[in-house]
Structures are given as C-alpha cells and as structure tokens.
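Dear Dr. L.,

I hope this message finds you well. Following up on our conversation about the binding site, I have prepared a predicted three-dimensional model of the protein together with protoporphyrin IX containing FE. For your records, I am including the exact sequence and ligand specification that went into the calculation, followed by the structure tokens. Please feel free to forward this to your student if that is useful.
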Amino acid sequence: MLTKDFLLTIGLFLWMYFLWNRRRLYSMALKLPGPLGLPILGIAIECILNHRKLTIRTKYMDKYGSTVLLWLGITPFIATRDPKVAEQVLSAPECINRSSILTRPIAHGLGEGLLTLEGAKWSERRKHINQAFKHNVLLSFFPIFNAESKSLLTLLDSLVGQGEKDILNDIIRWSFRIATQTTVGTDVQHEENFKNDTTLKSYQRGMKIVILNILLPFTQNKIVALLCGLEGQRLKIVTDIDNMIQKIVDKKLNTKTENSAQPEMQSVINKSIELFRNGEMPMQDVKGECSAMVIAAFETTGLTVRHTLLLLAMFPEYQEIAFEELKELFPTAGYFDVDYEDLQKMVFLDRVLNETLRLMPSVPISARETIRDFRLSNGVVIPKGVNFGVDIFNIHRNPDYWGPDPGKFNPDNFLPDNVRDRHPYAFIPFSKGKRNCIGWRYGVLSAKLALAKILRNFKVSTSFRYEDLEFADNVGIELIKAPGLAFERRT
Ligand code: HEM
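The resulting structure of the complex is given below.
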C-alpha cells in the first residue's frame, strides 16, 4: 500500500515537473487558435487516417484563422498560410534552422549538407556553395540538360499509342541524371551503378527510410532500427552512394587542379574538394554535400515537370497556347537543342510553370525550428525549439490573396499586372529569405527546357479530372492517386 502511494506520488511529481517544464509552450498555445484534437495524440491520428492530406490544415485554417497551432502528439506545431507571417518567419535569424524532425533523419541517413546544416556552419557553407549556382555555371549545364532531355523524348516517343501511363519514374530518372551530373560531374556517366540506376534506387530507398523516421521517430533509435532491419538497409544504401562519390572524388584528388576560372571548377563537388584541400571541410561532408544537393534537386524538379504536363493535359486549351508559342520558336519538331536565350522567349510557358508551382508546389511546407524565443508581430512569443511550418501549399491557395476560387488553374495569375501588387510572400515555391532554394534558377531552367521539348513534340492528354486530384504531405508533395498521361506525336 505504502509502495503504491509512494509510486503515485512520484508519478504525480514527475507529471507536474513535465508540465512545469513545458509551461511556456502552454502559455503560447493559449494565445494561438487551433484544434485541441485528442488527448496526448492531438491531430496525429487524423493525419495518419487521412493519408496526411494537405486539406486537413486547410480545414483548420478556414475554421480558426490563417495561423493555427496544431498538436502532433504532444508536440505543438504552428502552421501559417498568411504571407505576412511567412515573411516574418522566413526573414528571422531565430528561424534560420530547418526543423530537426526533418533534418536529423536526412543527415543521419544520407549525410550533412546545406539542406541539414545549422546556424553559423550553414551560413559559411552557403557562401561557398552559392558560387556553384552563378549564371555562367548554370549556362555550362545546358549540354547536360539538352542531352538528358533528348533521352527523355526518346523514351516518351515509345509511349505513343500505348494509352495512359504514369510517367513519374521516367521523369524522376531524367531529373536524377541531370542533378547527379551537374553536382559531381559528367564522369559519373561511366559508373556502372549510375548507368544501371542502382544509385537512383539507393537514393529512393534512403528517402523512404527518412520518411519512415520522420513519421515514426522511434525508428531513429539505433536498437529499434537494428531490430527492424532498417539499420542494415541504411548502411548498404550509404555505402553504395558513398562508394560512387568516393571514386569520383579520388579521381579528382589525383588530377592536377585545372584552370579554376572554368565554370566546371565551381561545381558543387569541386567547391567541396577545394574546401577539403584547405582543411575547411571533412571528407564525409564532401560526400554529404553532394548527396544532399542531389536529393534537394531531383525530386523537386521532376515533380514540377510531371505536374506541369498533368495540368496542361487537364486544360488542353492552355496546352495549345503553349504549343503555338513553342512552334513559333522551333518550327520543326524533333531533337532540337534549346539555349538560355530561347528559354527567355517562352513567356506563356513561364506563366504556366508558375501557376503549376502555385497549385502543386513540389515542397508543400517549409518547416523551421526556433533557435531562440521569437516574437510574432501580434506579440505572441514562440519559445525556443518550437516547429513552425510556412505552409506553401495553403499560402498559394489563400483566398485573401488569390480570390474566391483560389484552386482554379489560371496562368493569367502571373500576368505582370496581376503580379505587381501581390504580397511578395504570397507565391513562394522556392521559399524565401536567406535560406531559400539555392537551386531555384537551375530548377526553372531545366524544367522549362524539358517541357519545351516535350510540348513541342507531343500532345499530352489524360482522362483524370482536375477536381479529383488530392495532395498529401511528404518530403515532396504527393498525389494520392497517380494520374496517367497519353502521348500523341506533333509535327
Ligand atoms: C522546381 C524545382 C525546385 C523546387 C520547387 C525547390 C524548392 C525548394 C524549397 C521550397 C526549399 C526550401 C525548403 C525549406 O525551407 O525547408 C528548397 C531548398 C533547397 N533546394 Fe530547392 N527546389 C527546387 C530545385 C532545386 C535544385 C535544382 C537544387 C540544386 C541543384 C536545389 C537545392 C536546394 C537546396 C540545397 C536547398 C537548401 C538550401 C539551404 O538550406 O541553404 N533545389 N528548395
């Protein structure tokens, strides 16, 4: 009896200690609207049962306001679709770090890089890696963009007359091949594992483990991971990827440094090797930086191309306008090359691409974690360590900024007159502020180039209806049902 009372007292004491330690979270929670959800679970079960649909957050934002507090288990998560709040968060030094819920599994699974680094280490690295995205370096990537898009065209040509097919894997293969070659150099083409897609599959399996680690954080525990066989899989993946990058690094280390003014010398791998040679970067980070860059680049760009094709298949009247613009530039169909100047002339395709990134942003949420207390302009103090989601998907569909029918596909949203007076944070597919997407110009150029070639050569169609699209949270936005596309040759 005495023991039972004693245990009860200890339990009560620990519970009160737990609540006391979290008092600042509860004080913040009282000032922010949002659903309480179930005790202890919050809205976690609702998210899982509804396949992490993005409209769960939309529902709560419609009900409680544009900035809401959601309980994911016992963890508070603030989400906003208000561009003004997004601006405060994305410009604040207190919010410079990405959420560790996301970065810890990526860093553990695939290595440290810009995507996962924090604070001063990140800002130092960003200064160096920025040089790999200068205009002349991007121009030097065009032969790779053109060659890989040509291979993609050949593949799509084989789908003509085959009915509707989900082409996601083919497009992801295209974006992976350009991301890897521009990051580690074209020598990678000679690596067997690159040629036979083993490396791509390793990255994809690695990302699946990362997603599992994010959704079920206890799987990050080494013992749990060992028991479920995840650790073995992870080690194999890391070894596959590391071995491939190491071979390329070794070759570069054994070669005399070339003329450093050449754009190739500014590539991510060469910049990283330069830092390694100067003793500013360990070898593990050289490989981690390359891996993180490839991961950040290929899914986002691939999804953007796939989504643009889907939307143009669903809205054929806009596809015809895009085709006419391309036909004017490239009167003859076939394997023509596209250069930077050509891309500047595709003004309608630009509007279509922007509208696609608005309605189907490849990254649906930009999640940050406060490194110090941070005061919102309404006076609410967000304590250190709280996760804050700038909800890109819902910002792009906020009726206060996009009108009463924000889900309507309308490329005219990006006519200069319509863009001029819009809040700068109402459209942020590449996030904004100091920690925005380093590869945004690269993403736009490579996606536009591939789209120009595809849309000039093929008419795409689908029986899938726009109204039936459903979106889910993932590292990149996920379509709950995958629509197929049919291809017809153009002359
Ligand atoms: C259309 C294609 C792309 C989209 C929509 C996109 C979107 C984004 C977004 C929204 C972020 C910020 C994420 C956050 O705040 O949590 C981001 C970060 C990043 N992106 Fe992209 N991205 C694209 C293409 C690329 C490409 C092609 C590369 C590299 C070649 C790249 C490299 C990165 C890196 C390294 C970061 C982290 C930057 C840092 O923390 O300093 N992205 N991207």
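In brief: The longest helix spans residues 283-314.

With kind regards,
A. P.
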